[in-house]
Amino acid sequence: TQLLEQSPQFLSIQEGENLTVYCNSSSVFSSLQWYRQEPGEGPVLLVTVVTGGEVKKLKRLTFQFGDARKDSSLHITAAQPGDTGLYLCAGKRGEYGNKLVFGAGTILRVKS
Amino acid sequence: GAGVSQSPSNKVTEKGKDVELRCDPISGHTALYWYRQRLGQGLEFLIYFQGNSAPDKSGLPSDRFSAERTGESVSTLTIQRTQQEDSAVYLCASRPWGGGAPGELFFGEGSRLTVL
Q1: A109 to chain B, closest Cα gap in Å
Q2: Which residue in chain A is spatially nearest to B92 when comparing CA positions?
């Protein structure tokens, strides 16, 4: 059982569409991060959220941390082919916990 | 280079052989992580090193897996008597020590291991 459940597992959409991917857990996290990974490369950090209810925007990407700090969402507006990749959420538990736990990821494919 | 460097980038081995994977973290980064990623899946935590503290080995899947790190520099992940289920990409990441801060992990490109 994954500590962090991501949904959907796979998403294929047309350029210009909007989408939301989810990262859920029954556990509380002190922070959550979202990474994007392209084939043959390591994941790259997109954002870190630390406060319950926090919303962060990165151009067309909007990230939200749930009020209870158990879940997060990533919304992409007007998706582009360059958004294609594996989106991973990762959580840190406890004030000084060092282990960063990753979800299984959402594979996003944006067709032109 | 300035990033995390991993070698080899690809390794094909026969079942039962030992393999050693190397990670050279970003200079000055005191924390180093190893993760395993099976095809199309997320990252599975293996081991974490922080300075001279005892490593967190809680993610190592069996006693065939071990890792070492010399000070705050290079780390090696060793898999003994490889099995086909060990086939995966092994990713190394480093970050500056920030206490409880949720710092960014900087990943290498990974070592792809194929066990025949």
Answers
A1: 13
A2: A42
**Can you give the pLDDT of all 116 residues of chain B as single tens digits?**
579 999 999 999 999 999 999 999 999 888 899 999 998 788 999 999 988 888 889 899 999 999 999 877 899 999 999 999 999 999 999 988 755 556 788 999 999 999 99
- As a whole number of angstroms, the distance between CA A66 and CA A53 comes to 5
Q: Would you call B16 exposed, middle or buried from its count of C-beta atoms within 10 A (0-12, 13-18, 19+)? A: exposed
How far is Cα A107 from Cα B4, in angstroms, rounded to an integer? 24
Closest CA to B111 of A42, A38, A87, A83: A42
Q: Is the dihedral of CA B18, B29, B109, B57 positive or negative?
A: positive
d(CA B5, CA B108): 6
Among A96, A50, A44, CA closest to B3: A44
| Residue A50: C-alpha distances to residues A57, A69, B21, B43, B110 (Å) | 14, 8, 34, 21, 28
What chain A residue is nearest to B106 in terms of C-alpha separation? Answer: A44
Nearest to A42 among B42, B45, B109 (CB): B109
Go through chain A and tell me how many residues it has: 112
Chain A residues within 8 A of B23 when measuring between CB atoms: none
Q: Return the amino acid letter for A28.
A: V
